[in-house]
Amino acid sequence: MNNVIIVCTFLLTAYVSIRVMKSTRDQWLGMAAALGLNSVILGMSAWLLLRTDEQVRLFGIDHANRYTLIIALPVMTWVHFLMLSYARKRMGRHKNEGRA
Fold it and tell me: Residue 87 in contact with residue 18, Cβ under 8 Å?
């Protein structure tokens, strides 16, 4: 379940961050959009899954590793940064080809 949430979040935030970067031509605004959306989705899903898990509520032990959702946040942010850097270079290359 955690992997599905991480993959869906990655795909959604990749789409949103690239759209933001293309519309504003600002890589850092795309990065901020990706970080904010990742934080909200992963934080809320981790909170919801921990809140509804009876084993955690009774014993305080999480055997399903729900904290991987929170740990995935910096990794996903780093991958988005690399992806946006690549997309920015491609956008610059296409813009320069049109001038020639």
Answer: yes
pLDDT band at 1 (very low <50, low <70, confident <90, very high): confident
Pairwise CA distance, residues 58 & 88, whole Å: 49
Burial letters for 57-78: b for 16+ Cβ neighbours within 10 Å, e otherwise? Answer: eeeeeeeeebeebeebbeebee
DSSP label at 66?
T
Q: If you search the block for the tokens 């909170």, which residue do you land on?
A: 47
Separation CA 20–CA 44 (nearest Å) = 23
Look at the alpha carbons of 78, 79, 80, 84 in this order and tell me if their dihedral is positive or negative: positive
Contact 50, 58 (CB under 8 A): no
DSSP 60: S
**Predicted model pTM:** 0.74
Question: Tokens 């399903």 label which residue?
Answer: 64
Lookup: tokens for 65: 């590793």
